[in-house]
Amino acid sequence: MPNFNIAVLDGDGIGPEVIAEAIKVLDVVADKFGHTFAYTKAPVGAVAIDQTGDPLPEYTLSLCKKSDALLFGAIGHPRFDNDPSAKVRPEQGLLRLRKELGLFANLRPVASYDELADLSPLRPERMKGVDMLIVRELTGGIYFGEKGRKDNGNTAFDTCTYTRMEIERIVKMGFVEARARRGKLTLVDKANVMESSRLWREITRELAQENEDVELNFMFVDNAAMQLILNPAQFDVIVTSNMFGDILSDASSVLAGSLGLLPSSSIGSTVGMFEPIHGSWPEGAGQDRANPVAAILSAAMMLDHLELREEASAIRGAVNKVLGQGVGTEDLRPTTKVGTREFGDRIAAAL
Ligand SMILES: NC(=O)C1=CN([C@@H]2O[C@H](COP(=O)(O)OP(=O)(O)OC[C@H]3O[C@@H](n4cnc5c(N)ncnc54)[C@H](O)[C@@H]3O)[C@@H](O)[C@H]2O)C=CC1
Ligand SMILES: CC(C)CC(=O)C(=O)O
Ligand SMILES: [Mg+2]
Predict the structure, then answer these.
(1) What DSSP string runs through 167-235?
(2) What is the residue range of 176's domain?
């Protein structure tokens, strides 16, 4: 009977609410398939700052290092967002966690749900048939480069730096993922302007020689933002830098139906972390309104990573079944509107 130790970093805002539903569903999976999932909670983000002064306390990091997998909710609080002079910020906890654990790749699948097709009267025809994977570089680029102020605080800078090693490992992953899917890889960059993007292109062209079976194309990020809306079904795998991937994946969530639907896995050299792509939605916290599906599907990605594939697809099947019944939280504009907890109950019951 496999036993897995899972660190639970549910964080701030709606983070704890959506992670509670993911655990509800995982508990049913454990019962049904005869596994034991042992959960240990640890603080991260604003709650961790409140408790310890540090958004990523040493205890949390060492727990993560000895766990089999990490389930992450979301971090962030308006009191930091509204205070540009705050020296310690919840987001630093997440960025440091990714860096410390070497989680250089963030895989964000985006698919349109036939089950949701009738729910949204605004849903254009072109949103059908979307099935793509955004492979986002996660521990480099402008979020991690040198930043600061000069000229008495009147000039601010953030630096986008990428090394060959950082680019090679993520682009290689892009080729592998494309080969396992429909065999098409798009590098999204800004190589007409940015030197770091030109290095991405150079290295990707080199790697293409060892990956000739994968169809490769290049697209500037501004055009990619437009193409995602105009003709999203053209994309199979997108590989891109940290910030471009962050922005394009939130935009792509509209194709799926809601930001509250999109899961992700953050992987690299050590333990994997599984996290919805959305943030802590502070205005929605404590109201039983948040869509838990992104967190539940992140748990499914975790099971895939732990090689519990049948279990992972059982979760996906349960989500599709409940969506197909027209049930969902308000963001999906469903025929039967339910709260976070009832949505989780229904998915658990569908298992
Ligand atoms: N991975 C993380 O922990 C992330 C943290 N953040 C942080 O979260 C805080 C809020 O940031 P925002 O820009 O407002 O982004 P957000 O993702 O928290 O919310 C943006 C909008 O998306 C919708 N939304 C998000 N999650 C949802 C869910 N589960 N169900 C239904 N609707 C959902 C809501 O309409 C919300 O107004 C900030 O402090 C930010 O730094 C933002 C993005 C990612
Ligand atoms: C701290 C931010 C980089 C979080 C975020 O927006 C994300 O990872 O999607
Ligand atoms: Mg984001």
Answers:
(1) HHHHHHHHHHHHHHTTSEEEEEE-TTT-HHHHHHHHHHHHHHTT-TTSEEEEEEHHHHHHHHHH-GGG-
(2) 124-256
**Is 83 one of the catalytic residues?**
no
Pairing, β 155-158 against β 36-41: unpaired
Would residue 246 show up in a list of annotated catalytic residues for this protein?
Answer: yes
- Structural domain contains residue 119: no
Ligand 1 pocket, residue 288 CB under 6 Å: no
Give the residue ranges of the annotated binding site for substrate.
Answer: 98, 108, 136, 222
Which is catalytic among the residues 250, 288, 331, 345? 250
**Ligand 1: which of 243, 258, 259 to mutate, most ligand atoms within 8 Å of CB?**
259
CATH number of the domain enclosing 182: 3.40.718.10
Catalytic residue, chosen from 162, 190, 236, 304, is 190
Closest ligand relative to 75 C-alpha: 1
**pLDDT value for 129:** 86
Q: Are 74 and 276 in contact (CB under 8 A)?
A: yes
Report if residue 116 sits inside a domain: no
Return the sign of the alpha-carbon dihedral for residues 95, 97, 102, 105: negative
pLDDT tens per residue, range 54-71: 999 999 999 999 999 999
Q: What tokens does 63 get?
A: 């727990």
Kindly give, in sequence order, each residue whose CB lies less than 8 Å from that of residue 85, ignoring residues fewer than 6 positions away: none
| pLDDT < 50 regions, the chain | none
Residue 190: active-site member: yes
The CA distance from 15 to 4, in Å, is 22
**pTM for this prediction:** 0.97
- Distance, in Å, from the CA atom of 181 to the CA atom of 150, rounded to the nearest integer, reads 47
The ipTM of this complex is 0.99
Query: pLDDT, tens digit, for every residue of 322-332?
Result: 999 999 999 99
Q: Are residues 131 and 157 in the same domain?
A: yes
- Taking the centre of ligand 3 as the mean of its atom positions, its distance from the CA of residue 229, in whole angstroms, is 18
d(C-alpha 35, C-alpha 5), whole Å? 11
349 alpha carbon to ligand 2 midpoint, in Å?
A: 32
134 and 164 both lie in a single domain: yes
